[in-house]
Structures are given as structure tokens and as C-alpha cells.
Design goal:
Helices cover about 75% and strands about 0% of the residues. It is built from four helices and no strands. The protein is rod-shaped, with a radius of gyration of 27 Å. The N and C termini lie far apart (about 90 Å).
Length: about 170
Amino acid sequence: MDFLSIILAALGIHRERASKASDRRIEAYRLVSEVSAEAAQAANMVAMAMPGIMRRLQAVMPDQPEVQASCSTTLTTMYTQAKQLHEMAEGYKPMVENGSNWADWDLALRKLHEWRATISMLRPQTETIIRRYEELLTQAEHGYEAPVQTPQQPSWSQRDRGWDAPPL
């Protein structure tokens, strides 16, 4: 009877370990899918905005090809990097699906959570850059030039004198 209970306990431990690995594999697949979706959305945003921005830039600044080239380079780089991240995440999906039960899923999940947190900033930053380009183009189309800001020195009474400065 002891031999049978040892075998059943070993099977139970193996089943518990397999269940835990399966749960971690599902979590890893979810994280990789979210990264893939975020990167694809960022790439789509750039792809949708780039033709309009470039057309408006050529209309507003036809005599400044270096500005057009710089803007084009920036948007193209953002697009290609987002596409690379999307393709990388899609490439990880089969690896997660075929991962063994003996893989170190804790370490993998930790790394995937870090990757997901980093990628979650991609879409808002892409949106901010596109919006900034569009705002600058709108200002240029309406003939508005940004005022030149000169750094102002604070007066002696307003200046921070430190935490241990004696009173005046």
C-alpha cells in the first residue's frame, strides 16, 4: 500500500506542476499577444498619419528638404521599429505554445511583464509625436511662429538658497 501511495503522490505532484506550467504558459501567451497588439497599433498609427504629415510638410515648407527628410526619417524609423516589435512578438507565440513543462516559466513571465510594461508606452509616445508634428504644421499653415523664449534668471528674493541657508 505504501508503494501505491508513493506512486499516486508522484503523479499528483507531476499533475500539479503541469497545471502550474500550463497556467504560466497561458499568461505568457497573453502577454506576448498584448505586446504584438500594441506594436501593431503603433505601426498602424504611423502608417495612417505619415502620408498626410508629409503632404502638409511639402506644402508648407517646399524650400526646406532637410526638414522633410528629417520628418520622413523619424516616422519611417518609428514605423519599422514598431513592425519589428510586432514580428518579434508574433515569433514568440509558437515558442510559448511549444514550451516544455520543465521550462523556467517564472523567469520568462518576469521578463515578459517587463517587456509588456515597456511596450505599453509605445502607443502613447507615438501618438504624442504624431500630434506634435500635426500641431507644428497647423501653426506653420496659419503663419504662426513660436515666440523666442529667453531664459529668465530669478530675482535674488525668489531664488532657492538651499535647505540649510540662513534667513535673510
